[in-house]
Amino acid sequence: MDIPSKRTKGVREVVKIVKPRTTLKRKRSSETVEKPVSPTEITREKIASQWVTHKQCAYMGDDYYAIFFNSDVNLSSIMPILDQDDKLEDGVYTWVILSLNDDDVQDKKPRMYLKKTLSSYEFGTKHQEILYQITCKHMQCENYKLFFAGELLKTGNTIKYNLESGTYMKEKLNPKKRTIGTIHMSKITAGAMINDLLNKTGELTIRRENDTFITHKSIPLTKNDLKIYNFFGAKIYKFDNSESCKTFTKRGNSLSLRELGGSIVNISSPKTGGTRSRRTKKTRKHKTKNN
Prior knowledge:
Blueprint: E1 2-4, E2 14-16, E3 40-42, H1 44-48, E4 57-60, E5 63-68, H2 75-78, E6 82-83, E7 91-100, E8 111-116, H3 127-135, E9 136-137, E10 140-141, E11 144-155, E12 158-162, H4 180-198, E13 205-208, H5 223-231, E14 235-239, H6 242-249, E15 263-265, H7 274-290
Parallel strand pairs: 12-13
Antiparallel strand pairs: 1-2, 3-11, 4-5, 5-14, 6-8, 7-8, 7-11, 9-10, 11-12, 14-15
């Protein structure tokens, strides 16, 4: 509608009245449910390209130890791999949930694979090592889908788990790249899968934790651990402080073992049957005297 305005020097101005547009804000449906993160396709090339390092320092008492394995030592074979059908002992484990990514296979249900962690070094029990061992059986590497990966702590009938895997879960659950709803649903889905795969009898209590279970404090280094590593051909270096030990394990370190105040140690395996044989001899002598 046009409304005549005041005349200015014989010119008639017309003012137009424009009706305001009505904007309706779409309400976000409260029934909208976020989906968990999609599984990651795993191939042999992808696993092989990921750098696995075991150059770490752990302490026992006042001493710090750095352990080096030769490149020809197959660390993955040292620690046996377990799956969801095995009865788990108490302890700390690393785990992954995988399914076959093959259209020709009918049963592609996800399965859970675990490795018990001997110490905080995680020799042979890192997630990359589990995946390589599972996906490359008998030199035939199949393609898999990785759903989740993390750590697990079993104590009695209680299982605590987390999604701590810097290589596989850090980016998938990055709050800068994922919505809060997606991360929340991913954690719920992971817990439900673990419960279905491990708690088949319903006797276990399973709950999620945010903290890591693999630390020097939670899995303290023992002399027996050093004997096992020594048995499998590891070189063990001892230092009297953590700084020297960490410097020695850094890539490109130019300082020698002597300059860092360290020393190489050889911890031989315990003799089997020695004590028993001495007791047998004493018993025989004692019987001879009595006879």
